[in-house]
TrEMBL record:
<feature type="transmembrane region" description="Helical">
    <location>
        <begin position="321"/>
        <end position="343"/>
    </location>
</feature>
<protein>
    <recommendedName>
        <fullName>Phosphatidate cytidylyltransferase</fullName>
        <ecNumber>2.7.7.41</ecNumber>
    </recommendedName>
</protein>
<feature type="transmembrane region" description="Helical">
    <location>
        <begin position="179"/>
        <end position="201"/>
    </location>
</feature>
<keyword id="KW-0594">Phospholipid biosynthesis</keyword>
<keyword id="KW-0812">Transmembrane</keyword>
<dbReference type="GO" id="GO:0016024">
    <property type="term" value="P:CDP-diacylglycerol biosynthetic process"/>
</dbReference>
<keyword id="KW-0548">Nucleotidyltransferase</keyword>
<keyword id="KW-0444">Lipid biosynthesis</keyword>
<dbReference type="GO" id="GO:0004605">
    <property type="term" value="F:phosphatidate cytidylyltransferase activity"/>
</dbReference>
<keyword id="KW-0472">Membrane</keyword>
<comment type="pathway">
    <text>Phospholipid metabolism; CDP-diacylglycerol biosynthesis; CDP-diacylglycerol from sn-glycerol 3-phosphate: step 3/3.</text>
</comment>
<feature type="region of interest" description="Disordered">
    <location>
        <begin position="1"/>
        <end position="38"/>
    </location>
</feature>
<feature type="transmembrane region" description="Helical">
    <location>
        <begin position="110"/>
        <end position="127"/>
    </location>
</feature>
<keyword id="KW-0808">Transferase</keyword>
<comment type="similarity">
    <text>Belongs to the CDS family.</text>
</comment>
<feature type="transmembrane region" description="Helical">
    <location>
        <begin position="245"/>
        <end position="267"/>
    </location>
</feature>
<feature type="compositionally biased region" description="Basic and acidic residues">
    <location>
        <begin position="7"/>
        <end position="23"/>
    </location>
</feature>
Length: 430
């Protein structure tokens, strides 16, 4: 009997130490997260097998979410940022709720209050940095905002320190280990969710195309991998996700790269997608009007000799951004799914099917955005490493806030530098 008990405990990677941990924290029964399929769909699909019923439910809800995605894109950057914030809050809520339920944290004093307080502190810090960076002129124009901007990091640290002291004061003798465990749970959740959503907004400010193409590539890969796996899948890909297959993984890769090239070609021709999102201080609104950079101007490229006989062309006209889209779509289809595998491992560890039951057939919001957060970090790093250069407009904004003597010093230094290089003299002659 003892051997049978041990073998049962080792199912799904669970060991005896896991069982001891569970007993110490009060046990961890499965969290019920069954999908609430609308009654209309249940009646309409009642004659289908569970496999095909799930296929139709997922398909219909996916089309609905894609439609919603197009609507918020049409509504503009401000609505997009608001949606990102709402998604972030919902994902945080789902993960925190799992910890709260699985480890029976009901008796922990101030746990939920402190979790949401730390979320508020981290958001205040990150979004305050964003406001100061992208709305510098507006901040300097308003006295209260200027004071908040000047002491922003000190205020942020003070807020966090207050929460830290509240946590220490809430420690009780019989719950020490569990309280520190949940303290770590909260901070890891903040690192995964809030930091990544902040990077998504930074990508948005670089241009809507840097927001839409990566997200669309992840969505495309998720759909096409599911489709290829559903119809052609035979070979299991990874034990963490038994339903994932090599056929779906490979089919999703080629489909996503092709989709990224086509979507990039279409979007690169519109300034509303390619121009950086900037705040116009005169109209107090966001603007996306600019002269397209070289990334979004058609150029002619020579096709490799090996492929010329296949395609029948020697050259091809395309946008340079399309080349970058290959890197984005490749990451979305080869590395992005590991965000989903990570989430699958997390759910298996706590014996839950989904993070929540928000979306029928899909689970919770976190179930849909597990790969998006990993993608957001990659895009931000990619832009910083290969795309972004010095921003003259931001330098000028900061220059105008300096004292007159500081501005004059910078002017004379810059003038002397230009004269030494012979640039200023040539300009005067012209």
């Amino acid at each position: 009997n003892l051997q049978e008990s041990e073998s049962e405990n080792k199912l799904d990677g669970e060991t005896a130490s896991d069982s001891e941990s569970k007993s110490e924290f009060g046990g961890s029964p499965p969290v019920p997260t069954s999908d609430d399929t609308p009654e209309v769909l249940n009646r309409a699909l009642s004659n289908l097998s569970s496999r095909w019923k799930n296929w139709w439910v997922r398909g219909i809800l996916t089309l609905a979410m894609i439609t919603f995605f197009f609507i918020i894109i049409y509504l503009g950057p401000m609505v997009l940022m608001t949606i990102v914030m709402c998604v972030q809050i919902k994902c945080f809520h789902e993960i925190i709720t799992i910890g709260y339920n699985v480890y029976h944290s009901y008796d922990l004093p101030w746990f939920r209050t402190l979790s949401w307080y730390f979320l508020l502190c981290v958001n205040y810090f990150f979004y305050g940095e964003t406001v100061t960076d992208y709305f510098f002129t507006l901040v300097q124009r308003e006295e209260p905002l200027r004071i908040l901007s000047k002491y922003h990091r000190f205020i942020s640290f003070t807020l966090y320190l207050t929460g830290f002291c509240m946590f220490v004061l809430s420690l009780v003798k019989k719950h020490y280990r569990l309280q520190f465990y949940m303290f770590g749970w909260t901070h890891v959740t903040l690192l995964i969710v809030v930091t990544q959503s902040h990077l998504i907004i930074h990508n948005l400010f670089e241009g809507m195309i840097w927001f839409i193409v990566p997200i669309s590539c992840v969505i495309c890969n998720d759909i096409m991998a599911y489709m290829f796996g559903f119809f052609f899948g035979r070979t299991p890909l990874i034990k963490l996700s038994p339903k994932k297959t090599w056929e779906g993984f490979i089919g999703g890769f080629f489909s996503t790269v092709l989709f990224g090239l086509l979507l990039s070609y279409v979007m690169s021709g519109y300034r509303c997608f390619t121009c950086p999102v900037e705040f116009n201080n005169d109209t107090n609104s966001f603007t996306v009007d600019c002269e397209p950079s070289e990334l979004f101007q058609l150029q002619e490229y020579n096709i490799p000799v090996v492929l010329q006989s296949v395609v029948g062309w020697k050259t091809v006209r395309m946008y340079p951004f399309q080349i970058h889209s290959i890197a984005l779509s490749t990451f979305a289809s080869l590395i992005g799914p590991f965000g989903g595998f990570f989430a699958s491992g997390f759910k298996r560890a706590f014996k839950i099917k989904d993070f929540a039951n928000t979306i029928p057939g899909h689970g919770g919001i976190m179930d849909r955005f597990d790969c998006q957060y990993l993608m957001a970090t990659f895009v931000n790093v990619y832009i910083a490493s290969f795309i972004r250069g010095p921003n003259p407009s931001k330098l000028i904004q900061q220059f105008l806030t300096l004292r007159p003597d500081q501005q004059l010093h910078i002017f004379n230094t810059l003038k002397a530098h230009l004269v030494d290089k012979g640039i200023l003299g040539s300009l005067e002659d012209a």
